[in-house]
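Page 47, continued from p. 46.
Same chain as before, 456 aa.
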Amino acid sequence: MLERLFRLKDVQSDVRTEVIAGLSTFMAMAYILFVNPSILGIAGAPRDGVFFATAVGAGLATLAMGLFVNYPIALAPGMGLNAFYTFTVVLGMGVPWQTALGAVFISGIIFLILTVTRVRQMIVEAIPPQLKSAITVGIGLFITLVGLKLSGIMTINLSLTPETLKAVVSGNGTAGTTPLDTAIAMGDIFAPDALVAILGIILTGILMALRVRGAVLLGILGTMVIGIPFGVTTVPSGFSPVAIPHADQLIVGQLDILGALEMGLLTVIFTFTFVELFDSLGTIVGTAQRAGLIDKTGSFPRIGRALTVDAAAVTGGAILGTSTITAYIESATGVAAGGRTGLTAAVVGILFLLATFFAPVAGLIPDAATAPALVIVGVLMMAAVKGIDFDDFTVALPAFLTIILMPFTYSIANGVSAGLLLFPLLKLVTGRAKEVHWLLWILALVVLARFIWLLA
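Result:
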């Protein structure tokens, strides 16, 4: 039966290899089970409900990728997109988390239409690879900023006025201001939460350096244990790690689609759609290429199915109660272990579904234990900076602003918008407009309209 479903012999694989590959992929990305509830919980969503949505959404989407596409690619709520959801949309814009889920759902519908009509592929081709790298790096820095803030290692003072900040920097602070009254500063690193997080970063870093499989997940669990004597992790009496989720803990169907439409969240929907557009395609194509799934013509068989599953997962995840579900680059871990077929993905999907019974564990993991994972993910995403040519200023400036505006303005959308606007502009004034895809001009106009609308 497995041979008929996944055609293992065609790619010279076997059941044992595929199962091991599935386990490897799951271990590499299972941290999202704990990180996603932590991030979306800050937005006000019940963490147990988000855990269930994360596990079931990732499980069903990955199973679909395995059974209907026969690709060894796993999906789950995307890092970066969940941060945009919480910190930019909910906290920054004051949008209720249910309405934000509605925006995710709408972006998924748009995403599905763009995929079926092949517009999605055209948009991805229009974005310069170096800007894609810059967006990846910027999101990595943003995620790191979130991790440091959650743990208390760093403090962010958003109440400072430009005048107050200028006085502090110049040393002419007025009464009540100190050199520590900066927008971003070191927190109390000897406070229990910060100290536990620092130890967690060191622990996870050692595991990563030793190339231990599932290092990020083991780092989260290890940090949780470290937090017990510090009073950061609280283990209730009579605790049982295995439990069936109660119906009242679920947030399935609580998205507010009409609310998103009434609030006119066009920029939010655009950003959700845009970031997911090229991020998932790059992951799918890159992973499929590593798995040797290219046919004789140089194209990827069933890539249309893969993109359709990926798009449908966005709407499905919003209904379940989580931010955008997307293809995970950690799928490359399973490919490196020999995974070549959808059986690898099926194993990952089943493991995610089984994880729904361990929701109580997620409730025990404090922010100080998930913060190291965010920092480590930031490190991994920083590697994309190698793909940027800083010797070419028409690339360097757009890429640089894309990167720094995400953490410094606390907005992923601002960084993406700046890059899309400046890249074609600099190419135009230097007489290199031919290097710009025609569709990028349209995207630049959309971005310009966004800035005018926000500042008007």
